[in-house]
Amino acid sequence: MAELQLKVRYRTPEATVGFTAVAALTPVWALGAPVLCGLVIGYALGHPAAAAVHIVVLMCLALLSVTAAGILLAALFEDDRIHVSKDGLSIPLTLMGLKRRRNFFWNELGAATIIDAQSDSPKLLLSFGKQSILLSTKVMKRDDLEQLLLATELWGTNCNRSPELILFQTELRSEGNTKGLLSYTTMWEQELGRRFSSTSFIPLEPGKTLQNGRIKVVRQLAFGGFSAIYLAQRNKMELVVLKEAVVPNSVDPKAKASAEEHLAREGKLLALLNHPQIAHVLDCFVEDERHYLLLEHISGQDLRQYVRQNGAQSQAQVIDWGLQLAGILDYLHTQNPPIIHRDLTPDNIVMRNDGTLVLIDFGASNQFIGTATGTMIGKQAFISPEQLRGKATTQSDIYAFAGTMFFLLTGKDPTPLMVAHPRKTNEAVSEAFDQLVAECSAMDAVNRPANAHLIAERLKQLQYPMALVGSDHG
Predict the structure, then answer these.
(1) Residue 138 pLDDT greater than 60, yes or no
(2) Directed axis angle between helix 315-333 and helix 394-410, to 10°?
(3) Which of 157, 287, 389, 412 is buried most deeply by CB count within 10 Å?
(4) How far apart are CA 347 and CA 338, in angstroms?
(5) Closest among 185, 267, 245 to 370, alpha carbons compared
């Protein structure tokens, strides 16, 4: 996993006023006071009889104090960066207050939440043991804020991230993708708002146990609609991922029964999968009318985090990742019956430290709950038209594959319900690769490549001439 190092600019209006005042007075403390001090000393040396020693000393001390104060205040107000690393964060001097410390470590971070989320200036509250840091989100750039929230998620392993924070982070990411224009995403969301209604459920709290204490919830990873994902502990030792799904009692009894039947059947099928690049489904069970999938916890960084941190990736790198993903999809789609992932996105692909990719978080429950409740669940930029209509097929995963390739090549989510052309955003993408991504994201499923094996063959053809060029320069 690549190491994240951040410098988040954080300058409050008060600090800005202070810095401006100190800068305006620079001629006084940086030039005037030292020059005047020199003149006083010179006069005293030239007229020893007329100058009282104690008065000269006091005047010089006062003038030097003005200079020292100017230097200290300039350093104080100029320090406007929150330094973030894998160990913790260091806050600006102006934020220290009565804390008497500026370095905080991730293993101390117990809770993170958003205060006044609906106001013009939401505040991020980070609780480190008995001390807390309150940060105004308004004075940070959106990208910097998103990276800071990513750091709390990535390294705050003991942190309880509140539902308000998770929702705020999701909206922040969405704002970054659609800000400034009435895009297809916006129009689609407006249409979905007219067509669907959503009823949320209360997710499990950290410390909640299941299966007679065998599984303990550590913290929420994400939730929305009728599902949630948690980091959990099994048998007090092993970290696992717990996916929770609820079919509410308010839906039609027949639809509810059908969805629950599908959930149970799909869970058993997923538990039979055995592939080194697919997170193993360790168990599936029902408790308190909630359906659970217990998945292997994969250590690493998901591809969305990686691209946010490192930017759009080279075509050679994306082809390598594409070959890995095509191999995974080919394995899933050739099962009997075929397994449709339904949620292939950069968020659900984790890169191990050795560079191999692992597919996580099957979206099976999303599909069946959505069908039963009429609630749209999923990441809209990666959902095919037929999946939106509730008719997901293996071709739907190929559409999501195209969206993932687009994101990796450009650093941006594709426009929902549109053919993806990464070359329009990144001219370094070859026409052949752009064409492959466009074919995979065709609106009509029959116009996409027939299967993942054919995609892999196309990717190998793209990779071969690039390998020749590399050997010529070797």
Answers:
(1) yes
(2) 170
(3) 412
(4) 23
(5) 245
For 185-221, the pLDDT digits (tens) are: 444 444 444 433 444 567 888 899 999 999 999 988 7
Tokens linked to 72: 């200290």
The two most distant CA atoms of the chain are separated, in Å, by 108
The pLDDT value given to residue 188: 40
Q: Supply φ then ψ for residue 279, to 5 degrees.
A: -60, 125
In this structure, the strands spanning 357-359 and 349-351 are antiparallel
Taking the model in full, what pTM does it have? 0.56
